[in-house]
Design brief:
The structure holds 2 protein chains of 2 kinds. Chain A is of the alpha/beta class. Chain A contains 10 helices and 20 strands. Chain B is an alpha/beta fold. In chain B, strands 6-9-10-3-11-12 form a 6-stranded mixed sheet, sandwiched between helices. In chain B, a hairpin with a 2-residue loop joins strand 4 and strand 5. The two termini of chain B are 32 Å apart. The chains are: A alpha/beta, B alpha/beta. The complex binds adenosine-5'-diphosphate and magnesium ion. Adenosine-5'-diphosphate binds next to strand 2 and helix 1 of chain B.
C-alpha cells in the first residue's frame, strides 16, 4: 500500500467517505460537532512556523509523510510482557494504534466508583454528559490538531467518577503505537468527568514499537466538579520516529484541585499542550514537567492557565536537560481575567544544556487584567554547574558519574511528584537509562 | 611525597602563581600563610585539579607520579584531599549517597571491593564521632542550608571518611568558633599518621596552636617568600605581613 503524502487531503477525503457511509446517521449532534471541527481543520490547515504558537516547532517533517490511520497493529502477549510496568496495581487499559484492547486490559475498581466506557456506550448511557461536555472545552478554533482530533473522535475512553467517589486505584491508559510494519497514526480522544468531590488519578503512557514513523494526535478533556481532586500523569517514552501532539484541557469547577506531571523521556517530536481553566473560586492547580531530549529529539511544552475566578492558586515547575543536538520549547501563559482578584500564580522553568549544540526556547507570557494578584515567573537556561562537578570529582567520583549524579538531582524535584509508586519506580528506571548510572 | 617545582599558573590573562617550590614529606604538617589574594587557594585548587587554571610551567610530583597529568578524581583516588575554603551546596544530592559513591569509586580505582552497606555505616558512625557531626546533617542534601561552621565540619568529616594521604585544608578555620575549631583540629590530629601529610592553609596562627606545623611558609604575590618553623607563625601573628611585603618589595 502506498501512503498518501498529502496528509491534509487524505484526511479530508477520509472524513468525506465516512460521512457518505453514515448516510442519515450523520445528522446526530455528535457527528455535526465533528463535522464543524473538520471544516475548521480544512480552513486552518497544518500550522507552519509562521504561526506564533508553532514558531519553534516545525511540523513539516510530520505532514510530509504518509500514515496509515487504520493499521490494526499486532501486539502479542509477549509484547505486552515487555511493555509492562512492574508492580503496577490499578485499572490498566491498553490501546494499540489508538484502538482499545479489551483482552489486554483490566479494570478492578468497582463500577459505583469508576465507569470506563467507549464513546458509543457513553452516548447511550450518558447522552446528557456527552452533549454537555464533548468538544466544549478543548478549543480548536486556532488549533488544527485539536480540530482534526475532534473531527475523527471515535477511539479513546469516557471516564466518569460520580459525586463523592474516591477511586483508590489509578487509571493507567497505555497507548502503544505499533509501527513495525508501516507508518501508523492514531487520534485518541478521552473525556473524563469528575462529579462533586470525586477523586481519581489518571495516567497516560505512550510507547512505540518498531522503526517506522508513528504519529499520535491525542486530546483529553477533563471536567472537574466542585471540590473534585484530579491527578494527571503523562509519561512519554517513544521512538525517535514518533511524533506526538497532545492537548489536555482541564476545566475546573469551584474549589477543585488538579495536579499534573508531564514527563517526556523519549520521542522524536513532542508537543504537549496543557490548558487549565480555573472557572470557580478557590481552585488549586499544580503543574510539573520534566523533559530529557537527546540526539535530535524535540520537546515542546505549552501550558496555559486561565484564572477566571477569584481566590485561585496555580503553580508550575518545568525542568529540562537537553543533550546532543536536541531542542526544547517552553511556553507558559498565565491569563488572569478582570474578576480573578486575589490570584496567586507562580511559574518556573529551569533548563540545563548538557551539550553546546542543544538549544532551549522559553517564553513566559503573563496577561493580567485584575489588580490584586500575586504572579511570578522565572526561566533559566544554563550549563551544568562546574563548581559542583569539581567538588564531586575532587572526592573521587569520575566525571560521567558526577554528571549523572547532578542531573538526577536536578530531575528529582519533578520525579518525586509522581504519586503512583510503581510508575515512579518505572520513571526512575527510565531516567537512569537516559542520564546514566550513578 | 609531594614535590612542587617552579609552579606557575594563570587564570585567563592573569598569572597568579609565579614559581612555587615546596616539598612535603610523609608525616609532616606544613602551614601556608599569607595575606588575602596571594594565591593560597589557587595553589590548593591547582593541586586538586581544578580545570580553570592554565599551568604555565613547572611540575608537581606526588608519590612518584606526575600529578598534573591526572584528572581530579584520579588525584582523589591517589590520596589527595582538598577541604574547600567555600564548600558548595549541592541540592538534591544526599550526603550519604555522595560519600558512598565517592568511597566506592576510589576503592574501584584501587582495585578493592566496594564497601557494603553495613561496613559503610560502621565507618560513618565512627567518623561522625570524630568531628561531632550531627546525624541530621547527613540526611540532608550535600551542604544545603548548612551554616558556615557546619560546612567546614562536613569537609573534615569527608576527609575522615576518605582517609587521604595528603590533605590540604584551605582556611578550614575561618568561620569557626573556638569550640568548633578545637573539634576540627582534634579530628585532623587524630588522622595524622607517619605515612600521610597535611598542608594547612590559614591566615591566622590560631589554628596552629592546635595543629602544630613542622614548617610554616609565607605565600605572597604568587611566591613562597619565607619559610621557617612554627615560630614564624607567631612572629607573623605579632607583626602582621607588612614587614614581609616590605622585604620582598625591597628586593624587587
Ligand atoms: N576565577 C578568577 N578569575 C580571576 N582572578 C581570580 C580568580 N580566582 C582568583 N583570582 C585572583 O587570584 C588571586 C589569588 O586568589 P586566591 O588564590 O583565592 O588567594 P588567597 O586564597 O591567597 O586569598 C587574587 O588576586 C584573586 O582575585
Ligand atoms: Mg583563599
Amino acid at each position: 500500500m502506498t501512503l498518501n503524502t498529502d496528509l491534509k487531503a487524505q484526511l479530508i477525503a477520509e472524513f468525506q467517505a465516512t460521512e457518505d457511509r453514515l448516510n442519515g446517521a450523520s445528522r446526530t449532534p455528535f457527528f455535526q460537532r465533528k463535522k464543524e471541527a473538520l471544516l475548521t481543520f480544512e480552513k486552518l490547515g497544518f500550522p507552519t512556523i509562521r504561526h506564533e504558537e508553532w514558531k519553534y516547532s516545525n511540523v513539516k517533517g510530520l505532514i510530509n509523510q504518509g500514515f496509515d490511520f487504520h493499521a490494526p497493529g499486532q501486539v502479542t502477549a509477549a509484547d505486552v510482557d515487555a511493555l509492562q510496568i512492574p508492580n503496577l496495581e490499578g485499572n490498566v487499559l491498553y490501546f494499540v494504534n489508538g484502538v482499545f484492547q479489551p483482552e489486554l486490559s483490566v479494570v478492578i475498581s468497582p463500577e459505583n466508583q469508576l465507569l470506563i466506557l467507549n464513546f458509543a456506550q457513553a452516548a447511550k448511557q450518558f447522552p446528557e454528559l456527552i452533549e454537555q461536555h464533548f468538544a466544549k472545552y478543548a478549543d480548536y478554533s486556532d488549533n488544527a490538531f485539536t480540530a482534526l482530533n475532534t473531527a475523527f473522535a471515535q477511539h479513546g475512553v469516557f471516564i466518569h467518577v460520580p459525586d463523592g467517589a474516591m477511586v483508590e486505584m489509578p487509571v493507567i491508559l497505555r497507548f502503544i503505537s505499533d509501527a513495525r510494519v508501516q507508518n501508523v497514526a492514531s487520534q485518541p480522544r478521552n473525556l473524563i468527568v469528575l462529579g462533586h468531590r470525586a477523586d481519581v488519578k489518571v495516567a497516560e503512557s505512550f510507547r512505540t514499537l518498531g522503526n517506522n514513523a508513528a504519529f499520535t494526535n491525542i486530546v483529553t478533556e477533563v471536567i472537574l466538579g466542585e471540590e473534585a481532586h484530579f491527578e494527571y500523569y503523562k509519561v512519554q517514552d517513544e521512538s525517535d520516529k514518533a511524533y506526538h501532539i497532545g492537548t489536555t484541557h482541564i476545566q475546573h469547577g469551584r474549589a477543585s484541585q488538579s495536579y499534573s506531571v508531564t514527563v517526556s523521556i523519549n520521542g522524536g517530536f513532542i508537543r504537549n499542550n496543557l490548558n487549565l481553566v480555573l472557572d470557580g473560586e478557590r481552585c488549586d492547580a499544580h503543574m510539573y514537567g520534566l523533559y530529557l531530549p537527546n540526539e535530535r529529539q524535540h520537546v515542546d511544552n505549552h501550558t496555559l492557565v486561565v484564572h477566571a475566578q477569584p481566590n485561585c492558586e496555580s503553580s508550575e515547575l518545568y525542568k529540562g536537560i537537553l543533550y546532543d543536538k536536541s531542542t526544547g520549547v517552553f511556553n507558559g501563559k498565565i491569563f488572569v481575567k478582570q474578576d480573578a482578584q486575589k490570584t496567586n500564580a507562580y511559574q518556573s522553568c529551569r533548563n540545563v544544556l548538557a551539550s553546546p549544540d542543544a538549544s532551549m526556547n522559553t517564553k513566559p507570557q503573563l496577561e493580567i487584567y485584575a489588580d490584586d494578584v500575586k504572579c511570578s515567573h522565572g526561566t533559566t537556561t544554563g550549563q551544568l554547574n562546574e563548581e559542583a562537578m569539581f567538588y564531586l570529582q575532587s572526592r573521587g567520583i569520575p566525571k560521567d558519574k558526577a554528571r549523572a549524579l547532578l542531573m538526577q538531582a536536578f530531575a528529582q524535584d519533578v520525579i518525586e511528584k509522581m504519586r503512583i509508586p510503581a510508575m515512579k519506580q518505572y520513571l526512575e528506571g527510565l531516567i537512569v537509562e537516559k542520564i546514566g548510572e550513578i | 611525597m609531594l614535590k612542587i617545582e617552579n609552579l606557575q599558573a594563570a587564570i585567563g590573562e592573569k598569572q597568579i602563581l609565579k614559581g612555587i617550590n615546596l616539598e612535603v614529606k610523609a608525616g609532616e604538617v606544613h602551614a601556608i600563610m599569607g595575606p588575602n589574594g596571594s594565591g593560597k587557594s589557587t595553589l590548593a585548587s591547582v593541586l586538586a585539579g581544578r580545570q580553570d587554571y592554565e599551568i604555565l610551567s613547572g611540575s608537581v610530583e606526588f608519590l612518584g607520579q606526575d600529578l598534573l597529568e591526572l584528572a581530579p578524581e584520579e588525584r582523589a583516588a591517589q590520596g589527595i584531599f582538598l577541604a574547600f575554603q567555600y564548600p558548595i551546596e549541592i541540592p538534591g544530592v544526599s550526603t550519604v549517597n555522595f560519600l558512598k559513591t565517592a568511597i566506592n569509586e576510589i576503592r574501584k580505582y584501587r582495585g578493592q571491593e566496594p564497601l557494603d552497606a553495613v561496613q559503610f555505616l560502621k565507618r560513618m558512625k565512627e567518623k561522625m564521632a570524630f568531628v561531632n557531626m550531627d546525624q541530621s546533617l547527613l540526611s540532608r542534601a550535600l551542604n544545603e542550608g548548612f551554616s558556615g561552621g557546619e560546612k567546614k565540619r562536613n569537609e573534615i568529616f569527608q576527609m575522615a571518611m576518605l582517609e587521604p594521604k595528603l590533605a590540604i585544608l584551605d582556611e578550614t578555620d575561618s568561620g569557626l568558633d573556638i569550640d568548633a575549631l578545637r573539634i576540627v583540629a582534634e579530628g585532623v590530629n587524630k588522622l595524622r599518621r607517619p605515612d600521610n601529610a597535611t598542608i594547612v592553609v590559614t591566615h591566622y596562627q590560631r589554628l596552629l596552636d592546635y595543629i602544630v606545623p613542622d614548617y610554616v611558609h609565607v605565600l605572597y604575590n604568587g611566591r613562597i617568600v619565607k619559610s621557617g618553623t612554627k615560630e614564624l607563625a607567631l612572629e607573623l601573628e605579632e607583626k602582621g605581613y607588612d614587614w614581609i611585603k616590605a622585604e620582598v618589595d625591597a628586593v624587587a
